Amino acid sequence: MIDVIRKSFSFQLDNLGQYLQVNYHRESPESGFAHYVFHQTNSQIPFEVANDADIDSLDSNRLSHAPVLATVGYGLACGRRFSESFLESWANGLVRLSGREAFPIDRTSFFYRPTELLGIAVGINYCYKHQPEYSRWLQDILVEGEQRIQRIHSNFWTFLISAYAAQLVSVTWKPIILPLAKDMTVYELALVKWFCSVSPIFADAFKLTQIEPSIDKKLLEDCMTCSNPPQDSVRAALLYFSLKTTIIQIINSSLDNYERILQSPKKAVEWLNSACDNIHTVTQQLQSQLSQPSDIEAPNMGDMQMLLAALSRLRSDTDTIEDQIIKLQSSVEIINEPNTMNYYDFQLLVTSDCKIRASSEQGEALGKLQLEMNKIRLALELIERGQTDTELLKSLGSELYQALFPAKIHSHFRATLAGAEENKYNVRLRLVFESSELAALPWEFLYDEDTNFFLANNTQTALSRYIDIPQKKRELKAASLPLKVLLVISSPTNLTPLDVAGEENLIREALAQHIDAGKIELDVLPEATIRNINQKLRQKPYNVFHFIGHGIFENDKGFIALVDQDNKSKLLDDEGFANFFLGNSKLGLAVLNSCQGAAVSSHQVFAGIAPNLVRRGIPAIIAMQYSILDSTAKLFADEFYRTLALDWPLDAAIQSTRNAISIEVGLDKRDFATPVLYLRAKDGIIMSGLH
Question: Under a CB-based contact definition with an 8 Å cutoff, are residues 74 and 66 in contact?
Answer without folding.
Answer: no
